[in-house]
Each structure stands twice: as structure tokens, then as C-alpha cells.
Fold this protein.
Amino acid sequence: MSWTLLSAHEVHELIASDNVFLIDVRTEIEFSQGHPAGSYNIPWMLRSSANLVRNTDFIADVLRICSREDSIILSCKSGNRSSRAAAALQRAGFSSLYELKNGFEGRRDSFGRQTIEGWKASGLPIGFDAPLSRTYHWKNEELS
């Protein structure tokens, strides 16, 4: 792994002081239920009729909003999808990658109790609405 893991507070400081793209790789439904304020939604996985499948356009979708040289922070629910997305972006030549460790929700034990705090529990700004250009709905609008 050659990207940097950051805490929620470190991500918040970085996006406030630098020109970075915070990309939430959760599904559209997860994103609509709350996300780090100011983030873009580009799902790593998409809902099919039966389950989740990998978004084969993920790299192209990221390139729609930024370049391979831009600083990108990836976020998901708990850190699993964002790690896979970071690895794919790294293989595609993106050079300045960060990951929100523990994701939006944080980590939970087998009883559902939070064991490690994520963005949501950290008290940082949460968005529920986003401009169309920051949601994955832009793609559905282009196809209409």
C-alpha cells in the first residue's frame, strides 16, 4: 500500500486547507443517508438486480472530476471498499492518494457496538444533500 491512511480529523483538516477531492465510494443509497460534507459519490460497487457488482467504469468516473495528479481521499463505510478503490487508482497511475481510515461509520464488533470511531461519530460535518454534479445520479441523468 502506498497511499496514506488518515483519521477523520486529519481528512477534515486536509480538505479545509488544500485542493483535494474527497470521494465516497459507497452506494448511492448509503451516500444519500449521510456522507462527509463536500464529498463526491462514485460507487466502487453498484446494485444489480440480485447483488452488488464492481463498477467497471470507476476509473473513468473518477477521471470525470479530477486528474491523476490531483490529491484524492477515498472513503467508504468502514475502510474495505476504499482500500480496494485506492489500489485500483494506484494501478491506474494516480499519484496522490489518501484513505479515510475506518470510513464513515467506523468499525463495529460482532454485537454491533462501535469499537473504532469513523467520520460520523467524530462530530465532523455530515451532508445529506449534494449538488447533482457530486452525486452518482449525474450518470443516470446523462443516460436519460
